[in-house]
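Exercise 7.
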Amino acid sequence: MAEKIMLIDGNSIINRAFYGVPLLTNAEGRYTNAVYGFFNILFKLLDEDQPDYLAVAFDMHAPTFRHKTFDGYKGTRKGMPEELREQMPLLKEVLTAMHIPIYEQEGYEADDILGSLSKKAEDSGLIPVVVSGDRDLLQIAGETLKVRIPKTKGGRTETEDYYAKDVMEKYGVTPLEFIDVKALMGDTSDNIPGVPSIGEKTAVKIIQQYHDIENAIAHAA
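Solution. The predicted structure, written as tokens, is:
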């Protein structure tokens, strides 16, 4: 049996934990709810998957190549709440104390790092389990590569799991085709404009028929 590596989107998971767990403070008045929620999710996932290796990726404050390509990228996003911002160093401190590797790269997002690490893992014969709340990562789901999307409600965490077949079952397109579906429909959370009047259903229908945007344009008439 091949060894397994779990790769976690640190920003995505701590963000979900922050909004899923009521505000808590320690004796010094320091906020801790997001870190507490993060480790609740992490320990649950470790119990379920029993990975041999573990790593956490984070976004950096520097602009990414997407910001340089499109000025409006994430332009409608509100800044990180101060109560969450002050917990980020604490999370990294705890991960470091636990000897869990942290990956960050200026100009790239945690998602990009997870995609690269999961590809390297597969090339090395490992089975990757990628954990993120961002559905954009469904594009890397594979036969053995599993994408896990946690949802936190009232302190409880439930997880949706996706292999390539599950993406096909839920969205009617392959993981690779899912990229073009997102391109057609746009992404309001990242302030990425799609094609006017095309929502998810129409985007899926077009890609199911033509398989990619270039072919759809060729048949625009």
